[in-house]
Each structure stands twice: as structure tokens, then as C-alpha cells.
């Protein structure tokens, strides 16, 4: 599975780091670091992280079949918090 984060769009809200901490992490208060080749076992967490991004800065190949935009629903993302 391949992830791309548009770091020009990313505002550092850290929802992705909260929902998928094995893939995303904040470095300091505003810099995001992430694994662009996330493991398959993180699939559901990644779908929720992509859906939860308030500025839609994350795209993921390989999340097909998990709802709109290749992700879980917005309600699923909110249920995790």
C-alpha cells in the first residue's frame, strides 16, 4: 500500500498520527513524518486516518473497497476518537 501526503496542504492537525501511530508521527509541533509504504495490517487504521484528515492531504493507493475515496466513512473516523 502506498501513501502520499501533500505536505503543502498538511496543517499539522495530527489526526492521522492519532489514528495510525505506526505509520504517521509528528516531529515537533508541525512536521509530519510517515511511512509511504505502509504495511497491509494497518489498512483499516489508514482508511480512518485518510478520512479524518481535515484538509484531505493524504491519499492512499490500495484502500479500495473501504468506502468513499478509498476510505472508511467519516462516521467511522469519528467513532475512533
From TrEMBL:
It comes from the Bacteria. Its cofactor is [3Fe-4S] cluster. GO terms for molecular function: 3 iron, 4 sulfur cluster binding; electron transfer activity; iron ion binding. InterPro entries: 3Fe4S_ferredoxin (IPR001080), Fe-S_cluster_ET (IPR051269). Pfam families: Fer4_13 (PF13370). Keywords: 3Fe-4S, Electron transport, Iron, Iron-sulfur, Metal-binding, Transport. Ferredoxins are iron-sulfur proteins that transfer electrons in a wide variety of metabolic reactions. This is Ferredoxin.
Amino acid at each position: 500500500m502506498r501513501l502520499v501526503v501533500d505536505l503543502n496542504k498538511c496543517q499539522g492537525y495530527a489526526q492521522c498520527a492519532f489514528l495510525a501511530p505506526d505509520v504517521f508521527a509528528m516531529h515537533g509541533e508541525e512536521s509530519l513524518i510517515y511511512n509511504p509504504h505502509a504495511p497491509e495490517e494497518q489498512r483499516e487504521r489508514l482508511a480512518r486516518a485518510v478520512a479524518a484528515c481535515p484538509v484531505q492531504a493524504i491519499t492512499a493507493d490500495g484502500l479500495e473497497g473501504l468506502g468513499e475515496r478509498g476510505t472508511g466513512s467519516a462516521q467511522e473516523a469519528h467513532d475512533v476518537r
